[in-house]
Amino acid sequence: MNKKHGFPLTLTALAIATAFPAYAAQAGGATPDAAQTQSLKEVTVRAAKVGRRSKEATGLGKIVKTSETLNKEQVLGIRDLTRYDPGVAVVEQGNGASGGYSIRGVDKNRVAVSVDGVAQIQAFTVQGSLSGYGGRGGSGAINEIEYENISTVEIDKGAGSSDHGSGALGGAVAFRTKEAADLISDGKSWGIQAKTAYGSKNRQFMKSLGAGFSKDGWEGLLIRTERQGRETRPHGDIADGVEYGIDHLDAFRQTYDIQKQNKKAEYFLAEGESELKPVAKLAGNGNYLKNQLNRWVEERKKNNQPLSAEEEAMVREAQARHENLSAQSYTGGGRILPDPMDYRSGSWLAKLGYRFGGRHYVGGVFEDTKQRYDIRDMTEKQYYGTDEAKKFSDKSGVYDGNDFHDGLYFVPNIEEWKGDKNLVKGIGLKYSRTKFIDEHHRRRRMGLLYRYENEAYSDNWADKAVLSFDKQGVATDNNTLKLNCAVYPAVDKSCRASADKPYSYDSSDRFHYREQHNVLNASFEKSLKNKWTKHHLTLGFGYDASKAISRPEQLSHNAARISEHTGEYTDDGKDKYRLGKPEVVEGSVCGYIETLRSRKCVPRKINGSNIHISLNDRFSIGKYFDFSLGGRYDRQNFTTSEELVRSGRYVDRSWNSGIVFKPNRHFSLSYRASSGFRTPSFQELFGIDIYHDYPKGWQRPALKSEKAANREIGLQWKGDFGFLEISSFRNRYTDMIAVADQKTKLPDSTGRLTEIDIRDYYNAQNMSLQGINILGKIDWNGVYGKLPEGLYTTLAYNRIKPKSVSNRPGLSLRSYALDAVQPSRYVLGFGYDQPEGKWGANIMLTYSKGKNPDELAYLAGDQKRYSAGRVTSSWKTADVSAYLNLKKRLTLRAAIYNIGNYRYVTWESLRQTAESTANRRSEDSNYGRYAAPGRNFSLALEMKF
After folding, report:
1. Which of 168, 181, 206 is nearest to 80 (CA)?
2. Which has the closest alpha carbon to 514: 143, 121, 126?
3. Looking at residue 121, what DSSP letter applies?
């Protein structure tokens, strides 16, 4: 396999270059031009602790990006961070936010995410809303990172728990926040940086202002960043010419009995009123129109009994209402445009510290980031279709006043209502049916840090020592609002059920999830050398006291009223009705939920603790061999007093090793082996919670930690021409946790054993995959000296192929992990950076193969199923970007994406229809909503003082 793909792809690779400055900076061998040399010198102090080979010798599977890289690539959000990094993708969760990253065929909680060594919140999804009205109780999203606060990002592909701990099965993404030095120019004691940026694809506007100082041993920084945007718009021609025709229900007054000429229909008298009124009937009721009204009209025509003008008007009013709606206005299944979203975020980062004795530093950090994704779910029909007539069929149609629409409603049958039991609860036909999903995140961290630094190979006990304590809380709040309180076609998110709107209704289905971590970390580094060897030893240990709290809430309000027959009649035999003044009553499903063992409307809590110790040695023997060897021991405990919530102790060991053979200065051969593990997530510990209730005494089956093994071999060429790296990898995952059904015998109400399917989380799958990864950069001046300095080409390629999947016998799986495999992708770049850094430009060409449908197939029991109904075709696109530096203080950046205005769909976007997506859109018949944006642009202005 290597022989087949290695050398030809190497030649292909040599055709590419620089939108990957991170690769170039960390390649370790390319000869940089003058501007790059200056940039590298700036980064050395600020990011020396994060490099492709900082933690292990080979650098295989590593990507490191600095803040300058993020600026150059114009990263405005998580989806931009890995735009040009094949093999790393963002997990879309269907509600605007994201569920983390997918790497090496796994995603979400199987890719560790940390900031300054502190793990971020886990993706948490419950199996459904409490009310049962649709939607998820928890979105499955993680908190996203504010990139203006970031100094470096390390993306580690492949199992890496010896470096990153639990969760690093497929890889890890580790962020480091900025220090004061990142904001201060050389030779100055203070610095100010301001940045303003705009991206047209989601109309995002960003502004950031930061200041730093370093004076008399004191140093600090303060950064404030705000963002505001909308939903990402698909290709512009998706909705061109698209119009939807709908037929919906309404109300009409049945003033005439059409069956007989000039005969009045059913009238009634409301108590307290003096005039008879016609009963309200349902307009658009197919059965009534077909079997009665329209048939009677035809009979009248046959019998030469023409309808009067008033009768004809009533017949017209009885028909369904027809509307033609634009793609933007249409609501319901098959909507072609994405849901409208309002996105806002705000972030503070503050650091203050003091250096003393030349080698000691003591400081503190404060971070506070808020994000909100406010969405209107436009797949929720705003109207009531003619297929929903049965809901309203048995209503009396009586009303007070002149608004006959108040006579038609349907009864919500889920909540238990407080108040007078004689009050009639109902959701009025006249109100728009709307659904809003508010996703709010907040992350707050406070920390203390002590750092000791000495020269390498010193005689002291350590060359570097770091002791830190961080207290972090991350919360996600997912609220689904169902509102029936604005008269159709109006939409009002602020409306609520009120006494002046009979049968108005509102419902809030909310899920709070919070993780708290108190983290103590310590690390010690020591470099040693003798005549033949050099060693860099790192000893680390840490303790994390954690807590996870999940809290569902459900609350509804309804403007109910007394509506009853008085038992009396008028002199001409018409019914008399008593209609009371509407009263707002409160209801909830929690009364029923509290009877279940599996779910409660109260906070549930899991306490956790983790202690780890690690040792790593990077060493060289002579000039031909570099080695790395490391190991880590983790012991985690989870305790809870909650019923049907798992607890337990997990002891896991992970390791890494690497060897690099360098026969000469241009060529090296590398081999890396590593392992990873993931203890069950808090979601899996809580377990499936609404599928069915469980008999008393039944407990959830215990879960083991998932395991991963990674093997990679790579070749690297480097020299004046640049560098090229080709690697082949193989990953194996065991004891993968998945949702499955298991046949279990449990006692029924009579005590007799009955076999039923128990749906829960089980260690259900083993799987393996293999692939190839290529990255490189060519300095064309190094290839041929007469070409301009700064002219370059970059290449990146990744291919992953699943090799085997085996399921545990006796389980019928309900999910499939490997739909996270990204299709093969090539990224080719051509660019130029003026040697003094005054300006630069590049073009990036991306080609992706389509998703292989065989990768979506799995067995559920003896049935073959697919985790998604459709796959993507191959696609290609081209992006152009440029920058201009003015007087070293001002940088203007611009980019045009998809310059060919191609229409295509990425697998990452279409994967929102897969079973593994938290807010799955499988009911959508129109896949145009997942199309990537057409031609779009971004602009950024950076100022440094």
Report:
1. 206
2. 121
3. P
What φ, ψ does residue 37 adopt, rounded to 5°?
A: -60, -45
Task: Tokens for 419, please give them.
Answer: 């108040």
116 alpha-carbon distance from chain centroid: 21
Q: How far apart are CA 842 and CA 206, in angstroms?
A: 23
Q: Can you tell me whether residue 175 is helix, strand or coil?
A: strand
Q: Under 8 Å CB-to-CB from 494, ≥6 apart: which residues? A: none
671: closest CA among 709, 711, 617? 711
Residue 127 has pLDDT above 70, yes or no: no
Of 53-67, 356-370, 521-535, 660-674, the poorest mean pLDDT is in 53-67
- pLDDT at site 813: 81
Distance in angstroms (rounded) separating the CA atoms of residues 524 and 513: 35
Distances, alpha carbon 515 to alpha carbons 442, 550, 606, 826, in Å: 11, 9, 10, 38
- Mean pLDDT for the stretch of residues 119-147: 71
Q: Which two tokens stand for residue 895?
A: 């980019």
Cα distance from N-terminal residue to C-terminal residue, the chain? 54
Q: Could you say which DSSP state residue 920 is in?
A: -
**Strand blocks (E) in 75-158:** 88-92, 98-103, 106-107, 111-115, 118-119, 150-157
User: Are the C-beta atoms of 155 and 162 separated by less than 8 Å?
Assistant: no
* Helices and strands (DSSP H and E) totals, the chain: 13, 45
Average pLDDT over residues 211-222: 96
Beta-ladder partners of 220: 213, 352
Distance between CA 64 and CA 679 in Å, rounded? 27
Are 562 and 257 spatial neighbours (Cβ–Cβ below 8 Å)? no
DSSP 396-464: ----SSS-GGGG-EE---SPEEPS-TTSBP-EETTB--EEEEEEEEEEEEEEEEEEEE--TT-SSS-SE
Q: How does DSSP classify residue 289?
A: I
Tell me the C-alpha to C-alpha distance, in Å, between residue 930 and each of 114, 118, 377, 515, 852: 29, 34, 15, 32, 18
H or E stretch at 9: helix 2-13
Q: Report how far apart, in Å, the C-alpha atoms of 860 and of each of 299, 744, 805, 893 are.
A: 57, 17, 13, 51
Q: By mean pLDDT, which of 111-115, 201-205, 640-644 is the weakest?
A: 640-644
CB–CB of 198/205 below 8 Å?
yes
* Alpha carbons 697 and 243: distance in angstroms, whole number: 56
724 forms bridges with which residues in the sheet?
A: 717, 776
The confidence score (pLDDT) of residue 923 equals: 55
Grouping H, G, I as helix, E, B as strand and the rest as coil, residue 465 is strand
Q: Kindly tell me if the per-residue pLDDT of 100 is higher than 60.
A: yes
Mean pLDDT of the chain: 87
* Spatial CA neighbour of 142 closest among 112, 120, 118, 175: 120
Between 15 and 924, residue with greater pLDDT: 924
Tell me the pLDDT tens digit for each residue of 219-258. Answer: 999 999 999 999 999 998 888 889 999 999 999 998 998 8
DSSP letter assigned to residue 47 = H
Element (H, E) at 780: helix 780-783
pLDDT on residue 598 = 55
**For every residue of 868-918, which 3-state class applies, written as one string?**
CCCCCCCEEEEEEEEEEEECCCEEEEEEEECCCCCCCCCHHHHHHHCCCCC
Please say whether the dihedral angle defined by the alpha carbons of residues 290, 295, 297 and 302, taken in this order, is positive or negative: positive
Query: 773-803: string of b/e by CB count within 10 Å (b at 16+)?
Result: bbbbbbbbbbeeeeeebbbbbbbbbbbbebe
- CA–CA gap between residue 131 and residue 480 (Å, rounded): 10
